[in-house]
Description:
The complex is a heterodimer of chains A (423) and B (284).
Chain A: E1 3-12, E2 30-39, H1 40-51, E3 55-57, E4 65-73, H2 74-85, E5 88-92, E6 95-99, H3 102-131, H4 140-157, H5 166-181, H6 185-196, H7 199-206, E7 212-214, E8 222-223, H8 226-249, H9 255-261, E9 270-276, E10 297-300, H10 301-307, H11 338-349, H12 358-371, E11 373-380, H13 387-392, H14 397-405, E12 408-414, E13 417-422
Parallel strand pairs in A: 3-6, 7-8
Antiparallel strand pairs in A: 1-10, 1-11, 2-4, 4-11, 5-6, 7-9, 9-12, 12-13
Helix pairs in contact in A: 3-6, 4-5, 6-8, 11-12
Chain B: H1 10-23, H2 28-37, H3 40-43, H4 46-54, H5 66-77, H6 80-87, E1 92-93, H7 99-110, H8 116-124, H9 132-145, E2 153-154, E3 166-183, E4 186-193, H10 194-202, E5 216-228, E6 234-244, H11 258-270, H12 275-278
Antiparallel strand pairs in B: 1-3, 3-4, 3-5, 5-6
Amino acid sequence: MNSILFSIILLSAGSQTPTELPADSRLQARVEVVSTCVTLAELLQQISHQAGVPLKVATELEETLVVVRWGGEARGLLQLLGDYFQWTWEPDGAGYRLERTSRRREVEEEMWRRERLDAFDSAREALAAEISQASQPLSDEEQKKIQEIRRAMAALRNRPEGQTDWEAHNKLSIELQNLLKKADLARTLAMLAFVEAPEEARLRLVAGQAVTFADKPNPRQFPLGPRGRELAQRLVQEYSQLSKLSEEKHAELGPEVMRNIRTPFEPSNVKQVVVQSSASSGFPGFLFPLDSTVIVASFDDRALVSASVDTSLEAVKPKWSNQGTRPATDWSQIPVNESAFRRAVEAGKEELRREPCALFARMLLFLAERADRNLIAEASDAYAAPPFYELVEGHTVGELFTLLSRTFHLEVEDREGAIVLRQ
Amino acid sequence: MWARRLTIPRSLLRPLLAEMDSTWGLALDRMASVAASLTDEQLDRWTQTLEAALDIAPSHERVVTVDARDHLRLWASLPPTVRERLLAGETLRYGELPVQARAAVLRLADQLSSSSSALFSTAALPPAAREPWGEAVDAGLRSILGSRVVMNTTVRYPRDLPNETRIRVVRTEVPAVGYQRQSERRAYRVISPAWDVGRSDASNAEAMRAPNEGLYVGLEEIQSLGILLPDGTAILCNVRSRRLTEGARPLNRGQLPEPVRRAIEEGRQAGGRTLDNAAKTGML
C-alpha cells in the first residue's frame, strides 16, 4: 500500500500576485509547463530554458518535489513558488536563486514540530474514548461469533487444493482480528501509555526520540499510571503462561538451548514493564480534496483505482482515520468523466517505474486541466503519521504484535544482573 | 513545507529504481550505503515507495526495521579494509574501530534489537527442522559467541561500550527464486529463498506457491552481526537482502540450476516440519 502526501495550492488561471522579483523584462516571457513530478531544480531548469533567465535553487531545497501545470508569465510562476514555500529569490549572476532564510528554517522546524504534536494530541483524544471499551472480556455473543468465524475460515482452508477463496478468508480474518482487538491487553497498554504520556514525552516523540514508559521509571523514563501497571501485570501473567508452554514444547532441545529459553520469567521477577515508541510503516486511508487550501493528505493508490468508477470526486469520500487532525475542507465539485479519468490514470502508471508519485501527479494534472486551473503541488513519499500512533492503531493483531515485539519489553532479574527480554 | 523530510531524494532514488527494476533488489553493501544516506523518516517510507514504483513485495527485513538500518549503517561506516577483515572471519575489538564506526556500534547496542528473534527461532528448532542455511548462520553465531549463547538479550550502555567488546560478522548466501504473484488487484514481484519455495510447495499454502514457469534465479544474502560484551551478553543482529542474479532470464523449474533445484527439493522434504506445525507431526 502506498501513501502519497500532497500539499496543494490550486490557483486561478492567470492570477497575478505581487512579486519580490525585481523588474526584469525577461520574466514577462510566457512559459508553458506541465511537469508530472519533478524536483524543484528540474522545474527551474525548464522555466529557465523557456524564459532565458538562469534560475537556481539552494542545494538544501533542490530535492523538493513538485507537480506543476502552468501557462502564463514566468514571473507569476516563480513568485507563487516562492510564496508557497515562503522562500526568497536572490540575485545570482545573470539570474536568480531561490533561498531559504535562517528565520524561515526556524519557522519550518517549529511548524513541523507543531504539526506532529497536534497530530499526537488529536490521536490521544480519539484513543482515550476507545480505551474505556478496550480490554474488556468478550461477551458470550462475541465469543460465539469468533467461533463461527474460525469455523468458516477452517472450512475455507480445507477445501480441495486450488479452490480456497482466499479473498473471503482474508475478510473473515480481518473480522476476527477486529473482534480480538477488544480483548488485546498489549494494544490497550500501548494506547494507555500513549494517552497518558506527559507533554515532555510527547515532545520527545515528536522529535523522533525513543520514549520509555515504565512502572518503576528511571530518570530517563516516564511512569505508567495505576491502570497501566495493572494491565502490565496481567500481560506478564499471560506471557508467563506462554513461556511455560514454550518450555514444555522445547524440553527435548538440549541443555544449551534450554538454558536460554528458560531465562527466569516469573511474574515475581518482573522489575518493570516498558512500552517504547517506534517508527513503523505507512498510514492507510486517502483523501483528495481539491480546493485552495494547503492540505496534508494521505492517498492510497488502490483507492485511486476504485475511485475511477465514480463520476465525481464527491463520491471519493475521504477516509479519515481517528487521527482527525485535518477536517475535510470544502470539496470542489468537478465532474470527472470516467473514461477520461481512466486514461489519465493509465498514462501515469507507465511512469511509476521512474517516479512513484507519477500516478497521483497525473491525476492532479488531469483534474487541474478539467478545472482550467494552474496548479502547483508539493509531493512526497508518504504521510507523516506519528509513529507511536501507528503502532497503537496497527490494523491487524499480527501487525500490532510485530510492532510491539520490538517496542514492548520486560525487564527481569537475571542471575548475572538485570537484562531486558524482548517479547 | 516539510515534504522533503519524508521523501527519498530523487537523485538517489531514480538510479536505485532503475537498478532494482532489473534486479528486484539490492546487494547488502549497496543497501548499507542507502541506509547510511537516508534519514529514519525517509527510510520509514522506503518499502512503500518501492512498492508503488516497482510492485516488489514488501519485506520487513530490508531497511525498514530500526535495528536493520542501524546494522546497515554500522556496516557502511566501516572502512573497506575493516569490512574485509570481518568478512574473512576475524573478530575485532570495539576499541580498534574508527570513531564513526564505534558510534554506530553504540547506537546499535542501545537499540532493542528485534531481528535476533529470527536467530532465536533457528536455534530453537530441532536440527531436522532447521533450514539448511539456518544451520550455517547458527554455527557462525555460535562461533561469535562462544559457549554462552544468550539470545534475545541486550544490556544498555548509554555512554560507551567497553573497549574489550568484540565484533564479528558472518555472511551467508543462499539460492533464491524470483517470480510474479498475483495479489488482489496487483501483480507483485517476489524473491524467496529456494528452500522456502520448496517448503511452500509441500504445504497447502496455495496462495504462497511459486509458479512452475517464469522463474528467475536469485540469491539471498544474510549478514549476522554479533556484538559480544565483556560481561558475556551478546547483541545479535541479522539483516538480509534478496535480488536476482545478473543476466537472469525466465526459466521453468526444470531449467533452474542444480543448486537451486536441490534447495527447493530440500525445502519440499522439510515442508510441514517447521516449528509452527512441528507439534502436529510429532517432532516436538
